[in-house]
Every structure is written in C-alpha cells, then in structure tokens.
Amino acid sequence: MSLMAVKKQIASLDLLDLKKTNLIPDLAKSAEVKLNEIGFPNRKSEDWKYTKTAQLFKKPYKTGKENPNLKLDEFSFPKMKCPTLVIENGSINAHLSCVGDVQGLSINSFVDINKEQVEKIGNISNKKENPFSFLNASHLQSGIYIHLKKKNVLTQPLHLIFINTESQVFSNTRIYVHLEEFSEMNLIQSFVNNNDQDCVTNHVSEIELAENSQLSIEKIQNVLGESHICSEYIRQLNSSVFRINTLSSAGKLIRNGLNVFVEGENCTSYLNGLFIPSDDEHIDNHTHLEHIKPNCFSSECYKGIINDKATGIFNGKVVVHEDAQKIMAYQQNNNILLSNEAVVNAKPELEIYADDVKCSHGSTTGQLDEDALFYLQARGLSKSAALQLLMVGFVDEVLQGIQVEEVKNFYSNKIESLLSSN
Amino acid sequence: MAYTEGDLKKDLENKEYEFGFVTDIESDKAPNGLNESIVRFISEKKNEPDWLLDYRLKAFKIWSNMIEPEWAHVKYEKPKFQDISYYSAPKQKKELANLDEVDPELRKTMDKLGISMEEQKRLSGVAVDFVMDSVSVATSFKEKLGELGIIFCSFSEAVQNHPELVKKYMGSVVPATDNFYAALNAAVFSDGSFCYIPKGVSCPMELSTYFRINDSGTGQFERTLVVADKGSYVSYLEGCTAPQRDENQLHAAVVELIALDDAEIKYSTVQNWYPGDKQGKGGVFNFVTKRGLCHERSKISWTQVETGSAVTWKYPSCILKGDNAVGEFYSVAVTNNHQQADTGTKMIHIGKNTKSTIISKGISAGFSQNSYRGLVRIGKGADKARNFSQCDSLLMTDRCGAHTFPYIECENSTAQIEHEATTSKIGEDQIFYCLQRGISEEKAISLIVNGYAKEVLNQLPMEFAVEAQKLLEISLEGSVG
Amino acid sequence: MNKNIINIKGLKCEIEGKEILKGIDLQINKGEIHAIMGPNGSGKSTLSSVLAGKDEYEVTSGSVDYLGKDLLDLSPEERSWEGVFLAFQYPVEIPGVSNVNFLRTALNERNKYKRLDPVSAKNFLAMVKEKSALVGLDNKLKNRSVNEGFSGGEKKRNEIFQMAMLEPTLSILDETDSGLDIDALRIVSNGVNQLKSNENATLVITHYQRLLDYIVPDFVHVLYDGKIVRTGGKELALELEEKGYDWIKEELAV
Ligand SMILES: Nc1ncnc2c1ncn2[C@@H]1O[C@H](COP(=O)(O)OP(=O)(O)OP(=O)(O)O)[C@@H](O)[C@H]1O
Ligand SMILES: [Mg+2]
C-alpha cells in the first residue's frame, strides 16, 4: 500500500486544530516526515507478516458527527459510578461524559494542556516505528491527557468509552496517561459499537508510570464489523506495576500493538489477553516487552479461541538488554481451533543479551482435552455443556486476572454466552 | 561411558583450533570471479552432459537476478563474489587402485583428522568418501555396498554413471530458485556426494563424508543428494573441519534428501568449520540449504552438532508430504567468542497424521550470538498432525546473546502443536554441587553442558557422539567468566 | 597423635550484609558423632554451606582448622578432595548426567589430586554395587541423571550413597532424615553407622530426635540465632523433643 493512496482515502478528515493548542505543530510534522520515510507496511514487513492492512484503504473515510440519541447504558458499569469519558466518532462527547471531581486526578483535552505536558506527547510512542502511530500523530482528531498526582490511590476506575456511531468513520485518537510516584489507578478502555459498521479506529495510548506507581488497564474490544489498530506504549520506572488485560471479542480486523519499556528496576508487568474471533474476523496481538534494567518480573498470558473462518495471531517478543540481570520473564500462549477453516499463527520470541535470567515461553495450539471431555460426559454432562465448561476453564486464567470486579463479572458472562452460542 | 571419564586434558592442551593446518597440494584452479564462462568452465572440466550445463546456466541467471538476503540477527561483511575462485581440484591424474597411491600430503591430512582409511576399515566399518577441496579422492567399501545395490559415490561420478537418477531428483527438493545461496550452489557446485539406497535395502553401515575447505580463497559449493527408495534405510554422517585462515571463506552447500514411501533417512552432522580467532577475525561463512522430502510413512531425522563457523545460517527442514510421515530435528549449537549462528528447522506438514519433533539446544559463550529460528506449518489437509518443539538456550557469559524466533502457522483444527522454550544461565547450584563432590569447575561445566545436550547427542551414532562431545568441550573452553 | 578433625573458632558470616552466623565455636574429634538441632532459620544449613565453601556467604571473622589446614583457604573442590562431604538439605538435579558418570568423575578427580591412578571400570562397578547395597539404592537410579526426578527420599539415599563412595573424613548431613520413610531412615542410619570409624567423624543436622536413636551422637548442640547456645549429650535431644525450643529462648531472654 503506498502512502499516497492511504492519504487520499483519509484526506477529508477533520483534524485536531493544532493552532488552538500549545501542541508544537512539530509533532504532526515530524510524524509526517517519519511516515514518508518508513512508508506503510508492505508484503515484506516482518512485523505485519500475518496482518495485511492494505484492504483498509480501499475506500474513502470521513469524520462522524455527534449522535444526539446515543445511549450508553449497555456499555457502562452502573454499579461503580465511576468517572466516564465518551469519545464518539473520534471526538470527545462532552454531554455524555461525566468526570466529576476526583482527588488528584486531572483529565484534559490536548487542547487544554500546558507546554510541559505537550512536550511529553509522542516521546514514548516514538520509541517504536509503527506507521499507524505516526499516522495517528499526523492526523490526530482528539487527545486526552490523564494525570494522577503523587500518592493518590483511586478507588474507582476511570472509564473511557470509544464508540463510532456512523459508518465509514476513520478516527485517530490518542491518550497520554501519567501516574506520578506512589499513585494507583485502574483504567477501563471500552471500544464498542451499536451496529455492524465499517469504521476504522487508529488509537494510541502512551503511558508513563513513575516510581512505585501502579496502573491496571482493562481493554475491551467489541467492535463488530470495525477495524481497529490499537497501540500502547508504556514506560515503567522503578518499582512500578503495570497490568493490562486485552479482551477482544469482536472486530473485523484488530491489531493490538502493546509495547512495554521497563526502564526501572524491581518492576512488575502482567500482559494478558483473550481473543475470540469468529466468522471471518482477524485478531492480531503483538506484544513487545523490553527489559532494560535488572531485577524485574514479567508475565504474559494470551489465550485464543478461534472459530469459523477466523484468524488469530499472537506474536510476543521479550527482549532482555545487556546488563539487565536477574530478570524473570514468562510468556504463555494457548490457542484452540474450533473449526476446520480457522487459522492460528503464533510467534513467541525471546531475545536475550544478559545471562543471569530466567525466561521461558510456551505456545500450544490444538483442541480441548479429549480426556477431560470424556470425564465430564461420564459424569453426565452433555457434550455441548462439557465443551462449554472446558472452554470457560480454558479462559479462566485470563479472566481471573481482571482487576475490576464488575468488568470481570460482565466479561465472564459475555464469554459464557459467546461460547455457548458456538 | 561418556568422554569425561577419559582423560581429555591431553587432547585439550592445544587450545587453538585443533585441525587448523593447511595441506599443500598444487591445485587445478579456476581464475577468480563468476560469470557465464566460469560456469561453462566448471561444467567442461567435469565433463558434464548438456542437461547439467543447462541446469547450471539457468541457475546462474536466476542467481544473477537475486539480491543477497539480509538477516536480522547476523552481522558480517558480505563475501565478494568476484574474488572467489569457483573451482579447484587436487592434482590427481589417474584413478587410484588403493590407498598407497594417494598423495602422501593428503594421507597426512587424513591421519590428522583421524580418518585414515585403514583404520576406518579395520575399526569402525565406516565407508568414507573423503572430499578434499571439492573433488572426491578416495572411496572405500564400494564393493560391499555394491553387492546390495547401494550407490555411494561422489556427485561427479553419479553424474557420469547414474545420470537418470541425478536428473530425476536433483533440484526436486531444493530448486535453484529457492534462495540466493541455493541458486549460487546450483550454478557452480563443485562436487559432493550421491547416495541411492534401493527398495527394501537397509544400509548395513553408516555412510560418511568428510568435507574440507583447503585451497586459500576457494569457496566450497558442495551438493549432496540422498535418495532412499521405498522401504529402505540409511544413516548418513557428515562432518567437517577447516584450516585456519585470515580471510573469510564462503561455504554454501545444498543437501537434498528424498525418502520414498516407508523409507528412513538419518542424517547427522558434526560441523566444525574454522570459527575465526578470539577477536572474531577470519572464519568460515556457512550458508547451507538442507531439506528433505518425506513420502508416505517415511521418516527423516536431522541431527546436528554445530560448533564451528564464524557465521552459520542453516535450517535443515522436512517437507512431510506423505500421510503418516515423520520429521525430526535434533540440534546442539555452540557459539563462542564472536561467532554468530542462526539455525533451526522448518517442518512443513502437508500429509495427514504427520508428526514432527524439534529439540534444539543452544549454548552461547563469549560475545557470540546464537539464534533459533524455526517454522512449524500445518497445512489445511494435515489432519491430526502433531508437533512438539523444545528450544532451550544456555548462557555462559553476560556478553553473549541467545534468541528464539519460532513461527507457528496452523490451518487445521485437528492438529496439535506444542512449543516450549527456556533461556537461562548455567546453574550455579549445580556447579557448587559438583565442586562439593570434588569435580573442578571446568569439568563441572562440561558435565553439565553435555548433560544439557544429552537428548541430542544420544541421537548420534556412537563414533560421532564421542567426537561431538569433544567438540563441545573444546568449543567452550575457558568460556565461563 | 592429634585427635582433632575440625576446630571452628568464633566463626561469623553474613550474606548480603545480613549477619547469619554470629560466632560459632565447635570442635569435632576423630570417631565422634555430633548433632546440631535448632529452630528453622537459625543458621544450620548456613554453617554447613560455609564449611563446604559456598561463596555466597562471606566469612567476616573466625577460623576453621581442618586436619591442620586452614579450611577457609581451600576451594570447595579442594575441601572435597581433603575429605569434607556435605549431604545437601536440597540435593541438586543435574539433567542428562548419569549418577555413575558423575561419581566416577568425582572419584577420578580426587585420585588425580592425590596422585593416585584412576579407578578401573571393574573396581568402580564393584564399589558401586557394594555401596548401593549399603543404602538400599534402587539399581535403576544409578543410571538415571543425578537426582533428576528422584523422589525426596530417593535423593536423600543418593546423598548417602555418594558419601559411601567418596569415603569422607568429615561428613555433614543436613537434614538427611527429612523425607525418609521409617524403613529408609533405618537403612540410611545403618549405612552411616557402618561407615563410621575411629578416623572419621559425622555432623548430623536434624529436627527429629528419632534419627538420634539410630545414629547415636556423642554431643548434641542447639543452634539458635546464629550461635550455639547449649551443648549436651543425647538426653538434650530428648528434652528438646519434649519441650520444644521455647524454654531455651526464654532462658536466653532472661
Ligand atoms: N541466600 C540467602 N539470602 C538471604 N538470606 C539467606 C540466604 N541463605 C540463608 N539466608 C537466611 O539465613 C538464615 C539461616 O538460614 P539457614 O538455611 O541456615 O537455616 P536453617 O537453620 O538451616 O533452617 P531450616 O531448619 O529451615 O533448614 C535464614 O533467616 C535465611 O533466610
Ligand atoms: Mg537448613
């Protein structure tokens, strides 16, 4: 796909008015330069070996409008009464958002942030050369800056709802999350829609975790018919804890690029995911975790259940830098194929330049355990009930890692109904 | 019992490259450089039939239009293809009746390599096809193999005496279009080995070939073709050593194995090309394409012990085409000093009920980089295919690297694939346990490393296993910081 | 003739800046059996590791005289060659290295140090047969990889088998009894007793009085918080079994 062709299809998008912001117009400009330099993924791009994005740009896109009748009940978690921010068709919907006043927490549009904050944007995401993230910077529609002050521990999660309400929408959105020392919070990012529609979301999250801070993200992707390029860039400093659960249950083409740079000692990182594509959906999870400093722990667990003609991809890379001694890094990926036309591609990678480390990865692809199935049937379960039970068991490890109880319950139910319909 | 009980110390006194010596024989040598007329020169020199010349010329065209590949995890100065001589043959006018007629220089080389013909004949019953600078100079046990209808000869001889077999199978598994180095090899291959086992015959001895780079500035382009006809069995050994050199040497071999229905081929390699000196200067570039094709119920098993070469790029693979075919890959790769190895396997499952096993043990020391790169592909029709992969890496120093890049592609829901990989340092508690029992650190390390590689070493034929263990020990000497 | 095998004086050691042994004095003579008891974490294994030469532990003061030599000056393998044997509390697994191969390497390395000939295959096998019978080690285990996949009890038997093979002068048995079933306990103890002579000595570390019914100690020491706080005869073990360690802690607190 040539860059020109891509730009042509998104030429009519409304962009974030850079002049209105303190945003150094350089951000967009330098992204543009970078993009021209590296181009769009082509056949030979190793990182995009299993996910072809050319089809995304077969038609032109537009910017959507606010829909006055939008209801969000089914996407929110009413019991929690948590601060909620709604991004509709790539723009902040002020009417539906309800942030309230939370001690230590400030949430601002990129239009309203100070120079120091502005200068942070792009610093973490530029560590990797992802053309979609550069495209995001050069065609940014809206941005949200989330800042949690020192020693604040939030009891309620912050919920960001990203929703497209029209078809043919292409939204480039970005968030920057900064947790100061000893602060803690949970963030829910829901990417959802009401109907099967042909949109593209190209979202970037940059996350900066100061010493001793803790962030958990529950990322829900349930975007029937939509395509979704979603990239996270995380920088961890000393003794910080980062957790993310990526829960992808529907989407025409989903590509998650999760990049964690562990730049401090004694850090902990948990990267978990669940992907359940069906029909001809395509879900690709790329993780890239770099241990730059010694004495850290990381654990990764991705589970895929692939049905119909769907494709599931897991590509996890762990890099341990020279002198990053005493690293324990574990990675696990298990896939189940439910149909004869389903496809799985897995590529668990280790790149190790330090010697005093314990790293491992395991990847399995196959079916549910026949013996267990028989055992359950022998105890009187019907085959379908037994299968469902085993699948729930299969995903349980990931579900148990979900930090926000209500999300866990919601998602467990969702998975159960999804699996029983199979 | 393992070698550690033998007194290896003596063997190890000379820590420099053990087989680093140069044989001085006047060569019959092509001028440096590569063009169409060189290809014609080689073909003519070898008195080849037209079809083979055509094959070479086509391959040369293909190669000329290819770009040398770049690999993520190996860095080296690209060979200058126009500075290489593409043909050299030891001076050897007439056919030899027996060993005594072999050039005394050559005999000395063979003695030093421990493969003198008489000894081989008397002690181990191994038939040796000794390749010295690209041309076979001696072959033994021919009569005995001949009685069974087994053909084991140099590639050039096979071209002359069994053209129909060569024509049928050559390039059928590794076509000239396959990759840059396979194309180069197809254009300029000098010689190599050919082996054919007839239907139902189980070859009674290990067939073995020693390769050797000898003439300064000579690249070596070996070609090996092993065909096991229906229901036959053969175990094939390949080992190599090379003299010390200052400039880099290129080695781009092609090995093709064909196992017809119910046949089994066991192919074992001990690779000890000159790895370069402690600073990483010199050393052999080893870019090899090895691939086997399995028909129904057949089995191909690759075993390799890789300790040499400055740069190794090699993925012995199996195409499991027939139903119920089995592919195996057992590998130990040791890198020390500034060596770089990028090695692994590809298991392509096409037939139903096909099975593959991958056991890879990497050991990195010094400043070396050691990568496993593997592909397991289960095609749509490969019902009930199974794969098990275990890739372990052991790190000896804090300046080396160990990397694992497995690709798993599955298009069949009845397949089962299991891949495991671990990377860790050699166990300090294990070393202390050995020390407490009075085993010195150096011995402890070689015990532990050999134990770690056991699963692979066990796959080697006896004679080879001992040599391989020696090589492991020599390669890792003084490697722990 | 000096009857002394080991003489530990004021031994202090630390790990990562934390002091663990806080001044140990202990003298063991030829022909003697000493037992050390003490609550978890009191430093028993640390003492045995320091004696065997594990370099994680830093000796900050004190001395250890072993048969007239400065033990602390020797490398772990030299200590082994000089006859110090440690039966590990947690024996280490070495995958792919067979038990017999391991032992033969150990014996030959020692012989080399002592300028003796390597053991012949025949003698070695005879010795293996004799010594494994002594501790009732299953034949199959001898050819399996060192401790790999051994049950807890099998590992402990294997330690005593190795001890029998190496014929040490000073054996330190760190909780060799834990994990053994009742029969195994008797067999292993028998083995230890048979190896006992007037020329060697044994230091057993244990939590259970019962072992001391089989291996009768000449002295029992109580190690508490890095120091030997009590020394007595066999009856001290019985008293500890009955009353636990609290009374000692209380007395010390007074
Ligand atoms: N490697 C180490 N790093 C840090 N602390 C250590 C280390 N080894 C031992 N210690 C500490 O030293 C103390 C003594 O440990 P040791 O193993 O000697 O106790 P022990 O008396 O053998 O106990 P047990 O009866 O449980 O076997 C403990 O507090 C232990 O945690
Ligand atoms: Mg202990």
Describe the structure.
The complex is a heterotrimer of chains A (422), B (481) and C (254). Chain A folds into 2 domains: 262 residues, no CATH class; 54 residues, no CATH class. Chain A has 7 helices and 17 strands. In chain A, strand 1 and strand 2 form a beta hairpin. Chain B is of the alpha/beta class. Chain B has 13 helices and 24 strands. In chain B, the strands form 3 sheets. Chain B has a 10-stranded mixed beta sheet. In chain B, a hairpin with a 2-residue loop joins strand 3 and strand 4. Chain B is globular and about 65 Å long. The two termini of chain B are 29 Å apart. Chain C has a single domain, classed as Rossmann fold, CATH 3.40.50. Chain C has 10 helices and 12 strands. In chain C, a hairpin with a 2-residue loop joins strand 4 and strand 5. In chain C, helix 4 packs across helix 6 and helix 6 packs parallel to helix 7. The longest helix of chain C has 15 residues. At the A-B interface, strand 16 and strand 17 of A face strand 23 and strand 24 of B. Bound molecules: adenosine-5'-triphosphate (ATP) and magnesium ion. The site of magnesium ion has 5 residues of chain C, from helix 1.
Give a brief outline of the structure.
The complex is a heterotrimer of chains A (422), B (481) and C (254). Chain B is α/β, with parallel strands linked by helices and 481 residues long.
